[in-house]
């Protein structure tokens, strides 16, 4: 008998709860003044991780009460190494994407808080890496690969990989980060489809975010 897997009830539950949580988090963050930008961005990172975890467990509680069905499987070590390599490649790819994007479009810097926190000294950078390069990727991968890509994979690679990457990108907003997120979503969707595990994609996401934050610290 085939193992149960997430479907549309899990997608709708996880995505709705995630979006509600992110909107509420954004409203809270908007009340924090610019003078406390470092606090604001770290609250965002912690909140993103917690919202993603809550959305996952809401989906888990519906029908398929088996975390393995949501990608909580130990992959072969080689796939974790592949994830690390793809994280580095994605970091390089974002410079190409953003170079093309900003050649045609001018928009406000939506990464200013990250840059401020990354340049706030060693302790500030360390906290930012924990919140922005560990907790945020975990929360997002739980929802967008563990639930959404997972459930959409039943309709084939286009739905599972491209469809979930498009949803992931749109949630990041209509700015340059949409295209960066779509790239990461494609890579992680492929890895999830090949391995059935969320962990290689988590590695991609952690390496990608971490390298970006380290880069911000040098600006």
From TrEMBL:
Organism: Paenibacillus graminis
InterPro entries linked to this entry: CAAX_protease, Rce1/LyrA-like_dom
GO biological process, one term: CAAX-box protein maturation
Transmembrane segments: 12-31, 37-58, 79-102, 122-143, 155-178, 198-216
An example molecular function term from Gene Ontology annotations: endopeptidase activity
Domain CAAX prenyl protease 2/Lysostaphin resistance protein A-like: 124-210
A Pfam family assignment: Rce1-like
Sections of the chain in a coiled coil: none
Keywords carried by this UniProt record: Membrane, Transmembrane, Transmembrane helix
Protein name: CAAX prenyl protease 2/Lysostaphin resistance protein A-like domain-containing protein
């Amino acid at each position: 008998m085939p193992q149960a897997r997430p479907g549309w009830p899990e997608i709708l539950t996880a995505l709705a709860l995630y979006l509600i949580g992110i909107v509420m988090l954004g409203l809270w963050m908007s009340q924090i003044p610019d003078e406390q930008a470092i606090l604001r961005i770290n609250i965002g990172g912690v909140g993103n991780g917690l919202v993603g975890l809550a959305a996952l467990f809401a989906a888990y509680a519906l029908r398929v009460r088996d975390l393995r069905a949501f990608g909580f499987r130990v992959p072969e070590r080689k796939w974790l190494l592949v994830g690390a390599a793809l994280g580095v490649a994605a970091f390089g790819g974002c410079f190409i994407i953003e170079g093309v994007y900003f050649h045609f479009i001018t928009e406000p810097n939506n990464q200013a808080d990250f840059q401020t926190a990354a340049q706030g000294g060693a302790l500030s950078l360390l906290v930012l890496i924990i919140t922005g390069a560990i907790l945020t990727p975990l929360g997002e991968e739980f929802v967008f690969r563990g639930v959404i890509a997972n459930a959409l994979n039943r309709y084939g690679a286009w739905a599972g990989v491209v469809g979930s990457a498009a949803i992931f990108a749109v949630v990041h907003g209509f700015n340059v980060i949409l295209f960066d997120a779509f790239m990461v979503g494609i890579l992680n969707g492929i890895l999830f489809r090949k391995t059935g595990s969320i962990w290689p994609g988590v590695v991609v996401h952690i390496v990608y975010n971490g390298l970006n934050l380290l880069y911000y610290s040098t600006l």
